[in-house]
Amino acid sequence: MAKGKKQKNVSVALITIVIIMVIFIILIASIGNKPLCGNNKCDNEETCTSCPQDCGPCPTTTKTTTKVLTTTKIPSTTTTISGCSSNSDCMWCGDNCIPSPNDIPCIALAPPEGYSCECVNRICTKVKVLNVTTTTMPDSCNDTDGGVKYDVQGTISGYFLGKPYSYTDYCNSDSLIEYYCLATHYWHVDYNCAYAGKKCVDGACV
């Protein structure tokens, strides 16, 4: 009985030794295959992040952002009357008598003494006046829509060099010719209703 028990203990001991040897072999194999950081060799599993001592520091990257500028071209329109039918279609600008309205930025001022701005053969012409008369009515300007209002049709009226005048806002395609008063004189602006997403109808942007 003692002999059988002894043999059993020997078998258990041998099995235990075999298991320990297998575990030892596995540990040695895993240690041998595992990269060793600090051996001056950048192994396959080592990177600049996990082992900078062997693989060196990671390269720095510079992010470049390019900003693209877009330019939207706004359509422009000009309004010029090539001919005239009456003196009211003409205006004085600088030293010239030009059609009105006109895309030239100019305030409608009085011609110099001895000259007038008149429509001659459908052309606005600087005319020398032989007999200069004194103006009986002072220059004036009144606007029914109260100024530059693109959504309301208005009419300006008054006296210029003693002569009455009257102009009403009107459409030229989608452009609005908006008349307004500047002190005792009048002027106009050429406004494209499309800028506000509207159309010009009956002298107003709607």
Explain this structure to me?
The protein has 206 residues and is of the alpha+beta class. Among the domains are: 79-132, no CATH class; 134-206, no CATH class. The chain has helices at 2-33, 52-55; strands at 90-93, 96-99, 115-120, 123-128, 142-143, 155-160, 163-168, 170-172, 175-182, 185-192, 200-201, 204-205. The strands form five sheets. It has a three-stranded antiparallel sheet with strand order 5-6-7, with no helix packed on it. Strands 8-9-10 form a three-stranded antiparallel sheet, with no helix packed on it. The longest helix has 32 residues, at 2-33. Residues 68-81 have low confidence and may be disordered.
Which structural traits does this protein have?
rod-shaped, three-stranded antiparallel β-sheet, 2 helices, alpha+beta, 28% strand, 206 residues
Helix content: 10-25%
Overall residue-averaged pLDDT value = 77
Shape: rod-shaped
Which regions have little confidence, pLDDT < 50, spanning 5+ residues? 68-81
Number of helices: 2
> What class, by secondary structure content?
alpha+beta
Radius of gyration: 48 Å
Terminal CA distance reads 118 Å
Largest sheet: 3 strands, antiparallel
Outline:
The chain is an alpha+beta fold and 206 residues long. Helices cover 17% and strands 28% of the residues.
